[in-house]
Specification:
single chain, about 350 residues, alpha+beta, Uridine Diphospho-n-acetylenolpyruvylglucosamine Reductase, domain 2, Uridine Diphospho-n-acetylenolpyruvylglucosamine Reductase, domain 1, 5-stranded antiparallel sheet, 8 helices, binds uridine-diphosphate-2(N-acetylglucosaminyl) butyric acid
Length: about 350
């Protein structure tokens, strides 16, 4: 394993920002990871674990060590009458895993088709789309504890999953590296078709199966979300805010098209994309960054800008949504500043 200095990260962040890592190590095995973490030359430096970089905004170079997990492999660990348990390396491209599962007719991951990024990020972020979250298929996450090099397995319950949230963003933030994830998939798939756009899209397909479900999800995503290979972006930039019922009712009264999703008796989740659209930002371009014309929750980089430009745009959007609706939009992406902030 080689540790590179002044390493370009443009290919390692889906916004495509032209930044560098002070040091960069791609680790293909748990032993390589342990070797780099315990190396006296590096262990006092700021550390950043970077998978696909699909949820990161690099504002500056990272003056520290970037570790890029590349553990590969999908192996069947166990099987019972209902489920198969698949142990997957953190470096596997997420959608390659989804495709692998769908081909074998194992259900649970299909609604998460085409989400950019690597498997190692799925328990951290509890990725979700079209009515399904990764927490419904994650059996356990295998990790290395950064301070001690100890191996530790987090069960699904120990991951403490929430909406785009987990223990790896809270008590264990920056203290673990996910090396493998064990997924539990159904041998007799149960399709989740209730999400509005999905039900509509499925009408275009002659039959209902894991394959057509994946095709439908991919078609919706391709229509609404920019491909990071063509236009830099990190998916949804903000979380959908959860607000008190009264706030939601006030906003809904002025907008008959506002979708609302009850969370519990007293609060409601609102679509941030709609609020941003109503605040007049959809499709707007400011210099070399902007708001995607088909999905206002996605900020885009047209080339030649920096992470600071994206943050300036995001701040202006937050301010105007707050001024108009009294709702604070929380960022969903990770922001990497210099000096390192994590
Ligand atoms: N909407 C608008 N205008 C917009 C965007 C959305 O009015 O510009 C409205 C839609 O009409 C719809 C509602 O907002 O009624 C929800 O929109 P959509 O289905 O596109 O989903 P979202 O809430 O904007 C979330 C996730 C996405 C995920 C989709 C599909 C978050 C932060 N984002 O977006 O995840 O793909 O649902 O399930 O929860 C990501 O996390 O990076 C991501 C892309």
């Amino acid at each position: 394993m080689e540790v590179h200095s002044h390493y370009p990260l443009k290919q390692f962040n889906t916004f495509g920002f032209d930044v560098h890592a002070g040091l960069f190590a791609a680790v293909g095995t748990t032993d390589e990871l342990l070797a780099v973490l315990s190396d006296k030359r590096y262990c006092t430096l700021p550390l950043l674990i970077l998978g696909g970089g699909s949820n990161s905004v690099f504002c500056d170079d990272f003056d520290g060590l970037v570790v890029h997990p590349q553990m590969t492999g999908i192996e069947k660990q166990a099987e019972d009458a209902e489920f198969v348990y698949l142990r997957v390396g953190a470096g596997v491209v997420w959608d390659d895993f989804v495709s692998y599962a769908v081909q074998r007719n194992w259900g649970g991951a299909e609604n998460l088709s085409l989400i950019p990024g690597r498997v190692g990020a799925t328990p951290v972020q509890n990725i979700g789309a079209y009515g399904v979250e990764a927490k419904s298929i994650i059996h356990q996450a295998e990790c290395i504890l950064i301070d001690t090099g100890e191996r530790r397995v987090f069960s699904n319950a120990e991951c403490a999953f929430g909406y785009r949230d987990s223990v790896f963003k809270r008590a264990w933030k920056n203290k673990t590296v996910v090396t493998h994830v064990v997924f539990r998939l159904r041998k007799e798939p149960v399709l989740q078709t209730h999400y509005g756009h999905v039900a509509d899209e499925l009408k275009n397909y002659p039959e209902l199966s894991l394959q057509t479900m994946r095709q439908a999800i991919m078609a919706i995503r391709r229509r609404k979300l920019p491909d990071p290979a063509e236009t830099g972006n990190a998916g949804s930039f903000f979380k959908n805010p959860v607000v008190p019922n009264e706030t939601a009712m006030r906003i809904a009264a002025a907008d008959p098209h506002l979708a609302t999703y009850p969370v519990d008796g007293s609060s409601v989740k609102l679509p941030a994309g709609r609020l941003i659209e109503l605040a007049g930002w959809k499709g707007r371009r400011v210099g070399n960054v902007g708001v995607h014309p088909q999905q206002a929750l996605v900020l885009v980089h047209y080339g030649g800008a920096t992470g600071h430009d994206i943050i300036a745009l995001a701040t202006a959007i937050q301010q105007s949504v707050y001024d108009k609706f009294g709702v604070h939009l929380e960022r969903e992406v990770n922001v990497i500043l210099n000096p390192p902030n994590n």
